Structures are given as structure tokens and as C-alpha cells.
Amino acid sequence: MAAGGDPSGAARAVLEKHGCLIDIQCRREREELANVRVQRITRWLILSAVAALLGGAAWAMVSASRSNSLVLEPLSVPPALEARGLTGKVLSARLLDKLAEFERGSLTMRARRAVSATIGRTTSSSISAGRAFRLATARLR
Questions:
Q1: Contact call for residues 74 and 88 (beta carbons, < 8 A)
Q2: d(CA 125, CA 112)
Q3: Which residues of 92-131 are buried (b: 16+ CB within 10 A; e: fewer)?
Q4: pLDDT tens digit string along 97-132?
Q5: pLDDT (tens digit, 9 = 90+) per residue, 1-41?
Q6: Burial class (CB in 10 A: 0-12, 13-18, 19+), 72
């Protein structure tokens, strides 16, 4: 011991210093725990978003693969027909009207589907592609 020094005062100073260090360490541990919680929540949110996107993409692919619709785009026509007023949109509309006529004339047990005649960049019809093929080949026989 140092001469004239108070042994209990030095010990008290060391204990106070250690108490401050312990407080700092506890504060850092709480911050670390909060950071870990935020990281976990962020990971779960990202994983949930990725799973939702993958599920949506899978649903879209399955839905598209089982679609019964026929998409009829405007046809390209020779300039001679275009000069007579028979553009690709007009011919697409006529073909769609013919398919609708076939659909109306069919004698099936299935519920008839309406043909939407929206002529534009893409013309959609809800008649099934297989049904359209059967109707067209039956008409040609």
C-alpha cells in the first residue's frame, strides 16, 4: 500500500469505475439486442415478400397454362386488300364474328361463352382454342 493512501478510497474509485463500465456494457447489449430484433424482422419481411412474389408468379403461370381463351391479333394483309378497305383489323373482326356465329350455332351441353369483340391492338375472345379449331374443321368438311 502506498503510504498515507486510503485503501478503501482507492477500492471505492475502482468499483465506481467498474460500475460505469458495466452500465456502458449493459446499454450496448440492449442496443445490440434491439439491432438483432430489427434484423430478424427485416429478414422475415423480405422472405415473406419473396414468397408472395413467387406464389403470385406460380399462380399466374398456372392460370395462363389452363386458360381457355383465344387471343386474335389483327392480321397482316397484302397492300392490295388494304387498298380495298380490308385492313387487318377488319379481317380480324370478321373472323371473330364468324367464330361467334359458330359458337352460337353449336349444339353443346356446355354453357355458351360470350365473345367479346373488342377490336384494337389485341382482340380477345373467350371461346376456347380447341372449340374454335373443331368448329373451323367441321365447317370445312
A1: yes
A2: 12
A3: bbebbeebbebbeeeeeeeeeeebeeeeeeebbbebbeeb
A4: 888 888 777 766 454 444 443 434 444 444 555 566
A5: 455 567 788 889 999 999 999 999 999 999 999 999 999 99
A6: buried
